[in-house]
Amino acid sequence: MTKKDDLLFLSTITDDQARRVLTLLLQENPKLISKATAIAKDLLSGTDEEEISESVCDALSDLDVHVLWEESGKTYHGYVDPYEHSYEMMEDKIEPFLDDMERYLDRNMVDDAFSYCKGIMKGICVYMSEEAGEFADWAVDSDDGLTYDVIERWKTKNNNPDIITGLEAWRKECLKMKSR
């Protein structure tokens, strides 16, 4: 097999298979660990707050007020409050972003996590101020609660008071979008 054939073959393996190959390769060649780590950090650094904000806003824009109406109100199992359910629906949409933010914190990439966190909050506020439409009628003050929840989630991994003060100031700025 040529090098080109090898690269073609490797390009066809799944993410799980690639992870196992990398693990075995690093176990057999421990000197490559620091190089692999440097490459990974380089690939993952430079979080773009605006890009995250747009992605969060896009994810929230998938919410459908008709689904909210169908899933709330009187049900076989009792009553589902539409205001509470709208909040839960929004939580479900931002959960993957919160998981990503936590992964940055777990990697000790605090600056990137900080940008990611700010992007999440801004995306929520942009959605509520510009995109939510009829859904916003049922998601009253969800931006206030969800942005608070984002900071609380941050605190579970990093309780640096200076950073939290910065995030809380950013949150206040984002929440002002509604009043503009």
Description:
The protein has helices at residues 3-10, 15-28, 33-44, 49-61, 65-71, 82-106, 110-131, 135-138, 142-155, 161-175; strands spanning 73-75, 78-80. The protein has ten helices and two strands, in the order H-H-H-H-H-E-E-H-H-H-H-H. The longest helix has 25 residues, at 82-106. It is mainly alpha-helical. Strands 1-2 form a two-stranded antiparallel sheet. A hairpin with a 2-residue loop joins strand 1 (73-75) and strand 2 (78-80). It has two domains: 1-44, no CATH class; 47-179, no CATH class.
Descriptors for this entry?
180 residues; mainly alpha; 2 domains; two-stranded antiparallel sheet; 10 helices; 74% helix; globular
Percent strand: under 5%
Helix amount? over 70%
Rounded to an integer, what's the Rg over CA atoms? 21 Å
What string gives the helices and strands in order? HHHHHEEHHHHH
The main pleated sheet reads as: 2 strands, antiparallel
Number of domains: 2
Total number of β-strand segments? 2
Set out the fold topology.
Elements: H1 3-10, H2 15-28, H3 33-44, H4 49-61, H5 65-71, E1 73-75, E2 78-80, H6 82-106, H7 110-131, H8 135-138, H9 142-155, H10 161-175
Antiparallel strand pairs: 1-2
Concise structural overview:
It is built from 10 helices and 2 strands; from the N terminus they run H-H-H-H-H-E-E-H-H-H-H-H. By secondary structure, it is mostly helical.
